[in-house]
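Structure in, sequence out. Go:
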């Protein structure tokens, strides 16, 4: 098909040339140039050909004159590319001084100026020279995109933990203009500086930027939502955020846990209880099982029955066992509370279980056992190993310390001290 099109184009050009030749042959035209006594006469075709030839010669002469400068410019760009490539490799390898030197030299070429200055600033940051890094970022901002330079500064503030400086960099910028990485850092800084509600409103922009995807995006969304719930100033603001969440987020354990804790702090523990129970009906969560025992109730049905229903499906969950013990203690069911805590500790529960066991003993006015449990709770918090001591009932303790009754051959009771001595045989003289 291409060959046919080429042949047709050549045929069209040949026909056009033949037609033009007929016109020129019929009347070639006449050109006369007179200047200072000189007169040049020729046909229009020859004059046009001479003009084209002169222009070609002029272009060739200019090109030859420019050849050295073009060679030098090409050589300069080639050297700048090599320096840029070498500097980026050195930056990756951790050769900060070499990377900064090469990238600073590569910045002489306008085409590579912005990426070279940004790389040099990052190298200066990595070796701890903050003033030098700031100077390079200022040059990058003057000669390129200020947001790109601000992004590198934001990364530096993020590593140093200065979240307020990040918000100051991007507060005045429109969200749509922020690069994806800058948007991610901005949202993290908002959440960390007590402005998680503002970050919550920007989550659609974070999804659209695709800087995070999959599990990483879901985790970051849950973290920001949880912080927004925790930072709610009153019950109305808390309810507004909670009602605006999707069903998926209202069943996500970290989000529900944050909502339940904040609801408890604001005196809305019943709402927290309902949220935890609804989430646990969808997905099991040890974190929510632990929180369930901390939420106060104003009355109504006992939560112990609900928690014991979970125990049938998760009998070896230490968090659930501690929750059951806490609920039993509230209802003064001391024996079951101790049993649950013994099981939890045997399954690897830590300081929380020991502390709860201390409260159980204290409520029963068993001061020595309570002090021992609290001491082990402190030891577990310090990372020390706390050995489990199996508590025995009074009947078991008596049975362990009791001495069996011994009698002589004549049926006379023997004292414990004489039990080990040989009893003389009595006989008839």
């Amino acid at each position: 098909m291409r060959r046919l099109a080429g042949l047709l184009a050549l045929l069209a050009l040949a026909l056009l040339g033949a037609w033009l030749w007929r016109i020129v042959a019929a009347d070639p035209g006449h050109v006369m140039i007179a200047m200072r006594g000189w007169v040049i006469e020729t046909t229009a075709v020859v004059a046009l050909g001479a003009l084209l030839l002169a222009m070609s010669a002029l272009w060739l002469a200019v090109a030859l004159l420019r050849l050295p400068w073009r060679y030098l410019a090409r050589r300069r760009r080639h050297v700048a590319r090599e320096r840029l490539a070498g500097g980026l490799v050195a930056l990756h390898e951790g050769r900060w001084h070499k990377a900064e030197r090469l990238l600073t030299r590569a910045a002489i070429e306008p085409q590579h100026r912005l990426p070279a200055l940004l790389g040099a600033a990052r190298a200066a940051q990595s070796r701890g020279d903050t003033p030098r890094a700031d100077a390079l970022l200022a040059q990058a901002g003057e000669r390129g995109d200020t947001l790109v330079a601000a992004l590198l500064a934001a990364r530096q503030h993020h590593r140093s933990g200065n979240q307020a400086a990040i918000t100051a960099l991007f507060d005045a910028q429109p969200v749509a203009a922020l690069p994806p990485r800058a948007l991610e850092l901005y949202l993290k800084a908002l959440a960390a500086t007590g402005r998680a509600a503002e970050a919550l409103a920007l989550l659609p922009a974070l999804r659209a930027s695709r800087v995070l995807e999959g599990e990483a995006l879901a985790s970051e969304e849950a973290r920001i939502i949880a912080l927004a719930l925790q930072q709610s100033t009153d019950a109305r603001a808390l309810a507004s955020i909670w009602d605006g969440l999707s069903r998926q987020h209202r069943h996500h354990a970290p989000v529900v846990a944050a909502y339940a804790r904040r609801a408890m702090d604001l005196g809305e523990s019943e709402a927290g209880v309902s949220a935890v129970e609804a989430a646990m009906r969808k997905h099991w969560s040890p974190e929510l099982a632990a929180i369930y025992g901390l939420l106060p109730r104003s009355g109504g049905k006992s939560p112990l029955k609900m928690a014991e229903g979970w125990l049938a499906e998760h009998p070896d969950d230490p968090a659930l066992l501690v929750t059951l013990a806490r609920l039993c203690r509230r209802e003064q069911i001391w024996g079951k509370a101790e049993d649950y805590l013994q099981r939890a500790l045997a399954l690897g529960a830590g300081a929380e279980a020991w502390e709860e066991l201390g409260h159980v003993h204290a409520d029963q006015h068993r001061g020595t056992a309570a002090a021992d449990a609290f001491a082990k709770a402190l030891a577990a918090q310090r990372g020390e190993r706390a050995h489990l001591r199996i508590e025995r009932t009074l009947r078991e303790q008596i049975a362990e310390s009791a001495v069996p009754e011994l009698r002589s051959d004549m049926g006379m009771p023997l004292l414990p001290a004489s039990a080990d001595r040989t009893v003389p045989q009595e006989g008839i003289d």
